[in-house]
Amino acid sequence: MTGAERVRAAIEARNREGRAALIPYFCAWDPDLETTRALLWAAAEAGASVVELGFPFSDPLADGPTIQAATQRALRHRPTLEDFLEFVFRLYAEGYPLPVVVMGYYNPFFRFGIKRFAREARKAGLCGAIIPDLPLEEARPWLTEARKQGLAGILLAAPTTPEARLKRIAEASTGFLYYVSVTGITGARDRLPEDLVLRLDLCREVSPVPVAVGFGISTPEQVRLLAPHAEALVVGSALVRIVESEGKRAPERVKRVLSELVSAAERK
Amino acid sequence: MLPNRHGKFGPFGGRFVPETLMPALYELEEAYRRLRKDPDFRRELAWYLREYAGRPTPLYPARRLSEALGGHLKIYLKREDLLHTGAHKINNTLGQVLLARRMGKRRIIAETGAGQHGVATATAAALLGLECVVYMGAKDTVRQAMNVFRMELLGARVVPVTSGTQTLKDAINEAIRDWVTNVETTFYVIGSVVGPHPYPMMVRDFQSVIGRETRRQILRLEGRLPDMVIACVGGGSNAMGIFYPFVRDQEVKLVGVEAAGVGLDSVRHSATLTVGEPGVLHGMMTYLLQDRVGQIKGAHSIAPGLDYPGVGPEHAFLKECGRAEYVAVDDEEALSAFRLLSETEGIIPALESAHAVAYLARIADRLPKGAIVVVNLSGRGDKDVAAVKEYLSGREKR
Question: Pathway, per Swiss-Prot/TrEMBL (chain B) (predicted)?
């Protein structure tokens, strides 16, 4: 199975149980790589389906304060993409069960070389990438390389995306389509847009791949509300906040919180 | 015609932004392409530039400066320093804020480094009665406290940005975050020929009034085009503005002067085109100051307006195709030029513009007799006198 197929299969397997898949986000190296490793294992034990692992960038312009702060903590370790892929490789050598995709801004990948990155990523077992500052118009070269290596080239759609464009984005996206729930940056929110459910239904109507919704999702209530309308739910800042407050001791509480969200994700 | 329809200047430029902003960029491009041909909009902008900002600016023959540099050159200064708010920035902010009003956007946001673009945006917003929020690195709000106060006097709200390096690049990040959140109601006035398409094209067009006037003026004064045009480059808007109308005139040498800060071999400079490498930041593919991994480095210059780790994509293109040459001048050379122009012409230049004067001083001996050189004097130096005084007294102590 290719990386893209693994991602999709993991989501669909969970859907067959009548549940939406949970996709937690962690920022690699926050606060250190050993904790990141423990968080990933905690996520697997909690019943997550796919993991989104952030590669920190100096200028995270789509992120709110929580993930910005995580990025700052992570950057102190002076991470490289070589180290990132090495980490993923070791994780799979230890038998890690979930597909991992990287979430990162474009410049480090561009600098590494996208052809080389796609090749090395496949060798390490990484399953795909989400690049928030690479919209459809700029994504072609990367999507071509990703396809050659069987990686998921996951594109984002937003509340401002018109319907015809949404369809084009969904058709170009592999693994899943990432629908950004709010007009804004990442971060937990009390309220989600009123038409979100309608927008998600539209996404699922036009998308040949599973639809994941993210940005602002943090509570079991939100998960219960959205699970019937999306194949997968991304939870980021709510978990990163736990890492922020508990540091190395975060994995245990992350596991508990994530388990609750997993059990709230019933689709019926 | 550049850029192409994807906003590319060769491999540079483009629109590397979150999807949320893409429809807004299309909306902006469409509105801009329509309005720039609209006679009514053009008349309105021309009226404000003339009656409010003080255009056209003189092309002034700097005889005493010419003498001081050997007496063999004809040096002209394009006096953008005489514009309202003291620099070329107002050319662009009037254009963009008028555009915003036509698009029905009631809220203006901007980033600023030293505060010049923030002041020019706040000015245009006050003039046209729109709400204005300016993002400024927290460190810059301390260094440039006077400009913070000026913006507040003009009715703008200044938001200090505490993330990252707390300087211009982080102010841009924060402005983009605001725009992503409030995109339906808000117009983002970018201050230089940077950012995602259509900004580099639009800001260049608004600033091209500098080059169009210069061309007309030099032909009237000298009966021919200049041999060389020199301008400082941070993001590159004053340089793009004066270069653009000369780009097809191969006989006119175009020189962009970057800030070498305390030296190109140090980590404290802003010479993006001179020693940077291609990458993606703030929505564009361009030259950047970055490390091996692709993390963006901080920039430094004694001139706060040059202090940016990126540069306009059209400059990256002009460098790659060899049409313009980019060089770097350090803090000390810029300071000498700052004094030279003050003493010989009675014009205290902005430290940014002093970089352009400094490069001319460096190469004057090598230029042939009778050569015509135009220096874009993009801003006046009142804003810098306190910083220069402090720098010089600090140097005496060392």
Answer: Amino-acid biosynthesis; L-tryptophan biosynthesis; L-tryptophan from chorismate: step 5/5
Q: What is the pLDDT of residues B101-134, one digit of tens each?
A: 999 999 999 999 989 999 999 999 999 999 999 9
Distance between alpha carbon B5 and the CA centroid of its chain, in Å? 24
How do the domains of chain A map onto residue ranges? 3-263
Examine residue B355 and state whether it is found in any structural domain, yes or no.
yes
Shared domain for B304 and B337, answered yes or no, is: yes
pTM of the prediction? 0.97
Nearest-by-Cβ selection for A61 from B24, B173, B183: B173
In sequence order, what are the residues at sequence separation of 6 or more whose Cβ sits closer than 8 angstroms to the Cβ of residue A266? A18, A19, A20, A224, A227
Same domain, B222 and B299: yes
**Tokens standing for residue B248:** 């097809």
* Cβ neighbours, 10 Å, residue B244: 20
DSSP 8-class letter at A210 = -
Which of residues 193 through 252 in chain A touch B, CB cutoff 8 A?
A: none
**Residue B1: inside a domain, yes or no?**
no
The third-level CATH classification (topology) of the domain covering A3-263 is TIM Barrel (3.20.20)
Q: In what order do the strands lie in the sheet with B107-112?
A: B157-161, B131-137, B107-112, B186-189
- Long-range CB contact pairs, B1-6, < 8 A, 24+: B2/B314, B2/B317, B3/B197, B3/B200, B3/B201, B3/B313, B3/B314, B6/A137, B6/B197
Same domain for B239 and B284: yes
Residue in B19, B169, B183 closest to A59 by CB: B169
- The pairing of strands B107-112 and B131-137 is parallel
Q: 10 Å Cβ neighbour count for B342?
A: 16
Let me know if residue B278 belongs to a domain: yes
A82 is catalytic: no
- Contact assessment for residue B53 and residue B89, using Cβ atoms and an 8 Å cutoff: no
Residue A157 φ then ψ, to 5°: -125, 155
Tally of domains in chain B: 2
Give me the tens of pLDDT residue by residue for chain A, a chain 268 residues long: 999 999 999 999 999 999 999 999 999 999 999 999 999 999 999 999 999 999 999 999 999 999 999 999 999 999 999 999 999 999 999 999 999 999 999 999 999 999 999 999 999 999 999 999 999 999 999 999 999 999 999 999 999 999 999 999 999 999 999 999 999 999 888 888 989 999 999 999 999 999 999 999 999 999 999 999 999 999 999 999 999 999 999 999 999 999 999 999 998 7
| Residue B98 belongs to a domain | yes
Is B1's Cβ below 8 Å from some Cβ in A?
A: no
Same domain, B12 and B145: yes
Best mutation target among A55, A57, A61 (most B Cβ atoms within 10 Å) is A61
Its domain, for residue B262, covers 54-86+208-396
pLDDT, tens digit (0-9, with 9 covering 90-100), for B6-55: 999 999 999 999 999 999 999 999 999 999 999 999 999 999 999 999 99
**Residues B246 and B390 occupy one common structural domain:** yes
| Same structural domain, B243 and B110 | no
d(CA B134, CA B132): 7
* CATH classification at residue B231: 3.40.50.1100
A216 vs B4: CA distance, rounded Å: 37
